[in-house]
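Q: Predict the bound structure with nicotinamide-adenine-dinucleotide.
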Amino acid sequence: MQSAFHYRTRDARVVFGEDALETLGSVMDDLGRSRALIVATPELAATANRVATHLGDRQAGVFDEARQHVPVGTVQAAREALQRTEADCCITVGGGSSTGLGKALSLEVDDLPILAVPTTYAGSEMTSIWGLTDAGAKRTGRAARVAPRAVFYVPSFTTGLPPSISGPSGMNALAHSVEALYAVDCDPVTSLFAEESIRALAASLPRVVAEPEDLDARTEALYGAHLAGRVLDGASMALHHKLCHVLGGTFNLPHGPTHAVVLPYATAYNAPEVPEAMRRVARALGAEDAAKGLYALNRALDIPPSLEALGLKARDLDAAADAAIANQYPNPRPITRAGIRHLLDDAYHGRRPQSHAHLTASTTPDA
Ligand code: NAD
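A: Predicted complex:
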């Protein structure tokens, strides 16, 4: 047990359940808001309209053009919709792309509270992290003002999320919790949430993928993702998130599946330095070994088996390794060019993860 620690909490209302949206009006009243603009991705237009029906005359309009990676042009168009409809708050309906658009709006527009109705397991609704893409370059940051003030989890809104997105999205959430357990700034409370979120996600995701309409499984997966979002807000991320950022940003690999594929290998890389965190991950997974347990979970979720299957080319592995070691960041195990290249090679081929303990000695920068 750590003898000294600190952690943050935020003032956010969180409501779970099929009737969650019945509290929407009173939550808006509590926030002193009377007109909400709903933002969503095009695929979620019907769900956005269902949310609108709960608003009655509190509805200002629906903007259903949210897109991946929050392009600045989309933010500008949503901002115009906000002004045109005279909305004084924003309700995001969807995954990280919809939530991200709401956050970008609240970053630019003064006093614009965000209320979130998440429909994936990304967890963005529980964080103060924003992202924006301009001319192909993604900027991210943290700002308290972008964190949603209320979050409504309606499990049946997630039943349309196909297994091919549900599984990777859940593994993206799980990755937040695995990295939190060995984060430099983790605390006992965040660790508790992290372990419980891994347990809930590992228990529910195979059921979600096998039976997408199973509302109990969907509820437990949302609960796990909610905890993982809180964890992401409270602990800094390390090697795994850096690798996924590089692979997504530079090589355009898909966000969720990349997290899923890389996680067992990043975990195996760090394992020798963080045995207690690994014990907790393994315990939550119900597995003997953390990295192998994550690999087995990916297989059970029918996630593409390798970076090659996600479209990475073998010729890109060297450039990916170079980019992953370009900037210093906290990681429990020293980052070496040889170690990262080896990790990427395993992930590229989808090999069963092995301990990389034999590379521990090579801590000199060999890039
Ligand atoms: P997403 O929001 O892009 O959704 C993926 C696809 O699924 C989209 O086409 C969407 O329209 C569709 N979809 C969403 N919910 C659906 C449903 N219930 N039924 C049918 N289709 C549905 O993807 P995501 O994985 O939720 O989020 C990924 C993005 O979120 C990335 O850009 C990532 O960087 C960001 N993110 C941000 C944070 C943060 O704290 N800021 C945390 C995690 C992820």
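A: The chain is about 50% helix and 10% strand.
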